[in-house]
Design brief:
Length: 331
């Protein structure tokens, strides 16, 4: 009996979907519908807020990174699981309109993962995720071959434990032909409980990933520190390359040559959602694949993030490569 979580062997156009040619970048993670409420304030515990506008867009960390990489000129693919519901149908239709390979995106029983985002007038936001399709994702043999054949793989900590175990076997297996893997500790450990990577798995990714990415909130929860200190701590724990992001304060990139500060660009922020994903895509493009120096790669990544936040939605302002180059030329 066929695996219900695997895509069909034929995609309707006569192509063998179990044997796609892997693109340069493959992201593993969620593709979602995001419902954003523009609120008067981000409510505290027992507090409230008023929403004067409700908007829908598409997001999901895995999908955001794949789309951002494609906008930067890389061939990109996504491994994801959608539910067989209206949300899943809408996400699948959106992905079909993107220049992202979707041969390893499958639909199966369950509720599609979706997000409720509260965004204030300054672009700050809080995100609540629901639905079980993303946490029911598993990597089959075709997925693993797809990852093994790419030039760079991306995984978010929100992927379920079985996905991480399979990917770690690839990343830490000692195969000289294995692709570099970028791991993003996308949220604090408490937020990952029951649906994402455990602390022990995060510990393994510190040593196995070619680039370990961590934001301020996740760094504080996992390491008890942020910024430069977090980058140095991760290097001390065995990380090859580190990106410790700090939002509008920029980021620290660390490698064998030390810690490099990358400032953020000053732009009019409409929505911070997806900024980190655009930044990661820029690092994959320039630092991992192009082999540029950290500061140069970081500057491209910071430009991609800056342009993305100037429009609403997780991918509202995602730039094409020419737009990034023009932005940097002006500065």
């Amino acid at each position: 009996m066929a695996d219900p979580d695997s895509p069909p062997a034929d995609d309707g156009a006569g192509r063998d979907r179990d044997r796609p040619d892997p693109p340069e970048v493959v992201a593993v993670g969620a593709a979602t519908v995001d419902r954003t409420y523009r609120v008067s304030n981000l409510p505290e515990a027992d507090g409230g807020a008023y929403a004067d506008r409700v908007e829908e867009s598409f997001g999901g960390v895995g999908a955001n990174v794949a789309v951002a990489a494609a906008r930067l000129g890389r061939s990109a693919g996504l491994v994801a699981r959608l539910g067989e519901d209206d949300v899943g149908a809408r996400v699948a239709a959106d992905l079909a309109d993107r220049t992202v390979e979707t041969a390893r995106v499958r639909r199966a029983a369950g509720t599609s993962t979706h997000c409720v985002i509260l965004r204030d007038g300054d672009g700050k936001r809080s995100i609540v995720t629901a639905g079980d399709s993303a946490r029911r994702l598993r990597l089959d043999a075709a997925d693993r071959a797809y990852l093994a054949g790419t030039d760079a793989a991306f995984l978010t900590a929100y992927n379920p434990e079985p996905v991480h175990r399979a990917a770690l076997d690839l990343a830490a297996g000692g195969d000289p032909g294995a692709p570099p893997v970028v791991f993003d500790l996308s949220g604090p450990l408490a937020e990952l409980e029951g649906r994402g990577a455990t602390e022990a798995t995060v510990d393994r990714w510190v040593r196995a990933a070619d680039l370990f990415v961590v934001g301020e909130v996740a760094a504080e929860a996992y390491l008890g520190c942020t910024g430069r200190e977090a980058a140095e701590e991760l290097r001390a724990r065995g990380a090859d390359r580190v990106a410790a992001t700090r939002g509008e304060a920029g980021a620290f990139l660390a490698d064998d040559d030390g810690v490099h500060e990358v400032p953020a660009f000053d732009v009019d922020v409409v929505d911070e959602t997806g900024a980190g994903d655009a930044f990661v895509a820029g690092l994959i493009d320039r630092w991992i694949l192009a082999g540029e120096e950290p500061r140069d790669a970081g500057r491209v990544a910071a430009a991609a993030a800056a342009l993305n936040v100037t429009a609403a939605g997780a991918r509202g302002g995602l730039p094409h490569r020419a737009e990034v180059e023009a932005f940097l030329t002006e500065r």
